[in-house]
Amino acid sequence: MSRSKKVLVIGGGAAGLMAAIHAAWDGADAVIFEKNSQPARKLLITGKGRCNVTNNCDIDTVIRNVPTNPRFLYSALNRFAPEDTMDFFESLGVKLKTERGNRVFPASDNARDIVDALVKCAEKAGCVIYEKNIKSLIIKDGIICGVKDANGVEYLGYSVIIACGGASYPKTGSDGYGYVLARQAGHTITRIKPSLVPLVAHEGYCAKMMGLSLKNVKIDVLDTNQNKVVYTDFGELIFTHFGLSGPIILSASSHMTEPERCQYKIMIDLKPALTTEQLNTRLLRDFSEYKNRDFINSLDKLLPQKLIPVIVELSRISPHKKCNEITRAERRKFIGLLKAFPVTIRGFRPITDAIVTSGGVNVREIDAKTMESKLVSGLYFAGEVMDVDAYTGGFNLQIAFSTGVVAGESAAY
Ligand SMILES: Cc1cc2nc3c(=O)[nH]c(=O)nc-3n(C[C@H](O)[C@H](O)[C@H](O)COP(=O)(O)OP(=O)(O)OC[C@H]3O[C@@H](n4cnc5c(N)ncnc54)[C@H](O)[C@@H]3O)c2cc1C
Q1: How far is residue 319 CA from its own chain's centroid?
Q2: What is the mean pLDDT of the chain?
Q3: Domains in the chain, ordered, with CATH?
Q4: Residue pair 238/211 in contact by the 8 Å Cβ criterion
Q5: For ligand 1, atom 24, which residue shows the shortest CA distance?
Q6: What is the position in ligand 1's atom list of the atom closest to the CA of 13?
Q7: Ligand 1 binding pocket mutation candidate from 68, 103, 169, 396 (most atoms within 8 A of CB)
Q8: Whose CA is nearest to atom 35 of ligand 1?
Q9: Mind listing the pLDDT tens digit for each residue in 15-57?
Q10: Roughly what angle, to the nearest 10 degrees, separates helices 111-124 and 14-25?
Q11: 298 in helix, strand or coil?
Q12: Whose C-alpha lies nearest to ligand 1, atom 4?
């Protein structure tokens, strides 16, 4: 196929690489501008360095895991579904495996394999990667003509794809500049918020337990204004100097709006495998075994060390009360704490600490079938720069890949 059309892709992340590959496969000259010396820096740190590359599920399940503008993604997901992502990487020689929650990872547990496969595929397809920081778009009479880099050098092209990512983890390169470029084209940017982000706690006791990771706990997120549980999850959380982090906390954060109002309480069930009655039996047994011990010295088998002084203080039972003096009411109250350890949420950590950015280029100004701007002809968007974001599970990368494929193919058309 003749290579007459030049497609300029701003950003060499998951979406940009996928867009460039598909533009090149469809016969375009694809050029990627990446401001870092290496592309896909964020991809390297995904999934704690293992890269949860997609979710082994159907399109409707992806859609259910997208809280913001899910319907906008139908077309892109129909064109490039999770199974296409898996086929794509396996065809490049990356063996994949599916874990709990249908999360797909490279069998090697190494995100580097995903990055290398993408970059090699782009090079093989004929894409050129330039280390350039793009500062503005060249638009004439409502038609895109090219881009300009930080030194004022102009690059002309037939179409341009903005794939600059969001505003989270700016050290990886996604510092929100995609929004500046989109605004230059007349686009509106919806409110930018952190999502999948650690939570700041009101109580100081989280800091006392800093570093403590609880692997099998259940959480209920209580909206105290509505007196309603808005989210429940089971898995791992970590206490930090500011509050709470870990997988189930990040997921919980995307179910909270304006936590600064302190209306959310996270109730941690420290012993989800035991009923209240089973816990009562267990405590009765422990207290009878340690009947002459101080209360605070009787909990070693039940709880991690860092948690004991905190929960004892919250129980208001004197730490030096002998076990055989603890009353039934005190024991019941203590069981209540084991089943619902309370942490009041004061807010999100800043967007720089968020896994994804919620908000971005208004999708009402983008054609969902092509990812083309409705305002500037020949301008396209792909990935997190748009106002779409998902829960954890590989869905955010799937969005980057699906929208990247559609943008790349449409830009080359
Ligand atoms: C710690 C962490 C773990 C994550 N783990 C997962 C996971 O396991 N699974 C999952 O699905 N999602 C995960 N995500 C989310 C996922 O990484 C992002 O949603 C996805 O990378 C977005 O892809 P993107 O291409 O739109 O943006 P990015 O991957 O951020 O790529 C944007 C690229 O554009 C470049 N760029 C920006 N501005 C310019 C400019 N002006 N000129 C030139 N280049 C520019 C940047 O340097 C960057 O390389 C994780 C995110 C983080 C932070």
Answers
A1: 41
A2: 96
A3: 6-193+357-412 (3.50.50.60), 198-348 (no CATH)
A4: yes
A5: 165
A6: 31
A7: 396
A8: 11
A9: 999 999 999 999 999 999 999 999 999 999 999 999 999 999 9
A10: 30
A11: coil
A12: 46
Does any ligand 1 atom lie closer than 6 A to the CB of residue 41? yes
Give the amino acid at 305: Q
Per-residue pLDDT tens digits for 97-145: 999 999 999 999 999 999 999 999 999 999 999 999 999 999 999 999 9
Ligand 1 close to Cβ of residue 15 (< 6 A): yes
- Cα pseudo-dihedral 149, 192, 64, 200, rounded to 10: 120
- Evaluate: CB of 26 within 6 angstroms of ligand 1: no
Q: Is 16 in the pocket of ligand 1 (CB under 6 A)?
A: yes
Q: At which residue do the structure tokens 């009101």 appear?
A: 202
| Alpha helix positions (H), 267-387 | 276-289, 308-315, 328-339
In this model, does residue 1 exceed pLDDT 90? Answer: no
What sign does the CA torsion over 359, 365, 368, 371 have? Answer: negative
Between strands 228-239 and 143-149, the pairing is unpaired
